[in-house]
């Protein structure tokens, strides 16, 4: 791929990410605020890890760019579940967990529609969406992998997502207060 073609492709991806963020804001303002916060947390986490594990600045910025897409599949979750106050019952939880699969389908559609499947950065985008609920001890969900098998971008976004969940209030829980 020529530099010019790759730059055009990257601009298309960035525009797609921005469009997805706007759609999320339209659906639910708190989720829109969440994706902005957790993207910033993910960037800080990735920067903190960069020198220790050999991440380059470009990778850190791609994590930041694509982190807001982690929950893109939630646009396919019914409002009665997505916005429910209190805990989800087991059936609702199963439906909520489908947001990862739905997110992967949306990302593949975006990449396919713009013929960007081979763009090197598309792997980071896919991994952010596919692995953001995998946990190091295999207690997460979707792929059923653990530890080092989880791509680093998935681990970073998981940490940013969890951090934001801890310090933010949601319809189903209060924020954690540190004293």
Question: Quick summary of this structure?
Answer:
With 179 residues, the chain is mainly α. The chain has helices at 3-27, 29-53, 57-66, 79-82, 90-97, 99-113, 122-131, 152-167.
What is the CATH topology assignment?
Hypothetical protein af1432
Report the radius of gyration as a whole number of Å. Answer: 16 Å
What's the CATH superfamily, by name? Hypothetical protein af1432
CATH architecture: Orthogonal Bundle
- Give average pLDDT, whole number: 86
Task: Give the biggest sheet.
Answer: none
The arrangement of helices and strands along the chain is: HHHHHHHH
> What is the helix tally?
8
N-end to C-end Cα span: 53 Å
Helix content: 55-70%
* The CATH C-level class name: Mainly Alpha
Provide the domain count. Answer: 1
């Amino acid at each position: 791929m020529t530099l010019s073609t790759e730059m055009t492709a990257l601009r298309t991806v960035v525009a797609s990410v921005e469009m997805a963020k706007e759609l999320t804001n339209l659906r639910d303002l708190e989720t829109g605020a969440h994706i902005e916060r957790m993207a910033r947390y993910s960037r800080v986490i990735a920067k903190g890890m960069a020198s220790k594990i050999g991440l380059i600045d470009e990778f850190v910025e791609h994590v930041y760019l694509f982190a807001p897409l982690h929950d893109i599949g939630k646009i396919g979750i019914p409002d009665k579940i997505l916005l429910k106050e209190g805990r989800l019952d087991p059936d609702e939880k199963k439906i909520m967990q489908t947001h990862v699969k739905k997110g992967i389908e949306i990302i593949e559609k975006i990449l396919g529609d713009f013929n960007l499947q081979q763009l090197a950065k598309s792997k980071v985008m896919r991994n952010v969406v596919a692995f953001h609920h995998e946990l190091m001890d295999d207690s997460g969900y979707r792929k059923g992998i653990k530890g080092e098998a989880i791509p680093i971008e998935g681990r970073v976004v998981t940490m940013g997502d969890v951090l934001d969940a801890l310090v933010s209030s949601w319809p189903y829980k209060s924020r954690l207060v540190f004293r």
